[in-house]
Amino acid sequence: MNEHYKQHDIEAIDVIRAWNLGFELGNAIKYIARHNHKGDPVLDLEKAIWYLRSYIDNYDLERKYSDTVTGVTHL
């Protein structure tokens, strides 16, 4: 097992599962948790941002679709 998995008492995968974060949020947490323990910290934080942006973009698409179906308008 790689050393960046063993840096803390709690592994990122345990948090992701316990909080039921799913793929995109889970990957963001994973990259944030490990950013100082392997390779290039900034690159890992940029990956976390990418996953957060993807989640937000998909969330917005789902909300817009739902709003179209239900007729709900957000400010």
Descriptive report:
The protein is mainly alpha-helical. The protein has 3 helices and no strands. Helix 1 (about 10-20) runs antiparallel to helix 2 (about 20-35) and helix 2 packs antiparallel against helix 3 (about 40-70). The termini are far apart. Helices cover about 65% and strands about 0% of the residues. The protein has one domain (about 5-70).
Oligomer: single chain
Which percent band covers the strand fraction? under 5%
Number of helices: 3
Q: Give the rounded overall mean pLDDT.
A: 85
> Would you report the number of β strands?
0
Residue share in helices?
55-70%
List the helices and strands and how they pair.
Blueprint: H1 12-18, H2 22-34, H3 41-70
Helix pairs in contact: 1-2, 2-3
Produce a short descriptive summary:
With 75 residues, the protein is mainly α. It has helices at residues 12-18, 22-34, 41-70.
Features:
67% helix, 3 helices, 75 residues
